[in-house]
Automatic annotation (TrEMBL):
Ranges annotated as spanning the membrane: 45-69, 90-108, 120-139, 151-170, 182-203
Designated name of the protein: Metal-dependent membrane protease, CAAX amino terminal protease
Similarity comment text for this entry: Belongs to the UPF0177 family.
Keywords associated with the record: Hydrolase, Membrane, Protease, Transmembrane, Transmembrane helix
One GO BP: proteolysis
A GO MF label: endopeptidase activity
Superkingdom field: Bacteria
UniProt keyword Membrane, yes or no: yes
InterPro entries: MmRce1-like, Rce1/LyrA-like_dom
The keyword Cytoplasm belongs to this UniProt entry's keyword annotation: no
Positions of the CAAX prenyl protease 2/Lysostaphin resistance protein A-like domain: 58-161
Length: 210
């Protein structure tokens, strides 16, 4: 279940850097710039490997506890309420929409996409709504299958834990206009592997009900 999400996020990150290859920096210049001159490259490489290891082990658990309150609201309360009134598909749409719009204050501060994307701030909001709709389908599918809000919280925590991993590989000269597309998993390119998973779930659900 949720433990495969970091891999999909890394695939989305790779897709972003494949399209915007000029933004990729294997020397980790951005990380070195943040760390300062007192940290050498081998130490930063080890830190990067440890970060990668954490994405598949303890980081989703830690972030899952932080995401639990949000999940109790979205998937624990709002989605079941909407599903009862309007059915699953409409509940997915409305939950994804409200969840995306809920991010407006932090999007206006540059969260996830920055402040220099094409069409800011409308483009950022639309991309976030799309990502929230995709994640709503994934999280809801696992909620329906497991009947456990903890599984969904871990999935949410897994996404949050891996969300900034791609920034490690951004060049210090990366074009901030490109951040609408990634390397974050809520970017228009970064979200594609997650969207494929969501579509797979929709297909399986329709086949099971046919």
């Amino acid at each position: 279940m949720w433990f495969g999400l970091p891999l999909l996020i890394i695939l989305g990150m790779a897709l972003y850097f494949l399209v915007f290859s000029g933004d990729f920096d294997i020397t980790l210049s951005s990380l070195r710039q943040l760390a300062g001159n007192g940290v050498n490259l081998p130490s930063i490489q080890i830190l990067t490997l440890l970060t990668l290891f954490s994405l598949f082990t303890f980081a989703p658990v830690i972030n899952g506890f932080l995401a639990l309150g949000e999940e109790l609201g979205w998937r624990g309360f709002l989605y079941p309420l909407l599903k009862k009134e309007f059915g699953q598909r409409k509940a997915d749409l409305v939950t994804g929409l409200i969840w995306g719009v809920w991010h407006v204050p932090i999007l206006l501060m540059g969260h996830n996409y920055g402040l220099k994307t094409w069409g800011f701030p409308v483009s950022n909001l639309l991309a976030m709504i799309l990502a929230c709709f995709v994640l709503q389908i994934i999280f809801r599918h696992w909620l329906d299958a497991s009947k456990s809000i903890w599984i969904v919280a871990l999935a949410h925590g897994s996404v949050n834990a891996a969300a900034t991993f791609g920034q490690i590989f951004l060049s210090s000269k990366a074009d901030p206009a490109n951040f609408l597309f990634g390397p974050s998993p809520v970017g228009l390119l970064g979200v594609i592997p997650l969207a494929i998973l969501a579509l797979t779930f929709i297909y399986k659900e329709r086949r099971n009900h046919s």
